[in-house]
Design goal:
heterodimer, A: Rossmann fold, B: alpha+beta, two-stranded antiparallel sheet
Amino acid sequence: MNLLLIEPDKILGAVYKKHLQRNGIVVQWARAGQEAIVLADTNKPDVVILELQLPGHGGVGFLYEFCSYVDWQHIPIVLHTLASIPSKEQLFGLNIVDCLYKPTTSLTRLVSVVKDLAPSVV
Amino acid sequence: MDSSAQDIRLLRALTEQLKLPLIQIARMAEFAKESNDGSGLASIGNIADMALGLLDAFLLSADLRSQQTFPLEPVSLSSVLNDTAHKLSFIATQNDCDLRLSIEGKYGPVMAHRESLEYAMTLLGYGLISARSNGSSQHKVVLTAYKNTNGIVAGVFDNQPGLSADTFRRGHALFGATRQTMPSLIGGNGASIFVADTLMRAMEAPLRTVRHNTLSGFAATLNPSAQLVLL
């Protein structure tokens, strides 16, 4: 499984990436929306994990851009964020499959959520 | 805005900002435990110290604003910035940031409250180092002091775009009320920057956005100590 991790914090991103890789998941890590688009374009991910509090246009802005590309509209997206989760209306049509609140989501749980998505990944 | 309303806004912003270092500590500790890898333990301690510093800076700002008179004294700016650079070295290394010190010219002490000034510079440095590194080019942060016609300017600058007076002004209006106060600048709420500003305002030296050489940043103008002039 090829996972695109969008995490602006360098310390957290390094920990998440190392832990996910230790669990057999291939990880591409972007620290901002534009970088994530470039990585996805180069190597299409199977799953996206996204922190909403991104600099620049923000995570919601990134979501709308990402989901505007037809080739990426089916890619499941997991919100993994410090921010409060947006409403269902805001997330409609954006292929969000799970919403995880960072303070209460352990590394173990994060890996479990990603691995549970494996059967749905084409 | 009255001071209690401002305290509440700062407190809200502060509690949001503290989530990040606490999550860093929690996840690093979890990773260290599961992988039997203790190499991150020193980092955990440093992150905890920075988070505690943020809390202490907020408490200091609340205490100082409640005082009738403000205890200014002659303070060596180079000494403050040197100590600040030392405190920030860990965060700079963690974020692959090139942290520098630039004391331009020779001048005597400035009138300031040393503890507040050091907290303010440390918080500004923390804010710019941790939130502004975008990984695409070498992030440079410089702790700077120089003289201008109004006094001695002390501040923290970096080489990333997006900082302007308008951005800072809008951020002031939004902090405590929204999670991203200056989104073109940083992803979080920038509480460390606003706590730093509160400390500097207590010394009647509010922060402003400044361009210096090719860098932009936050800086305050301090009055030189008149003691040597009298001699």
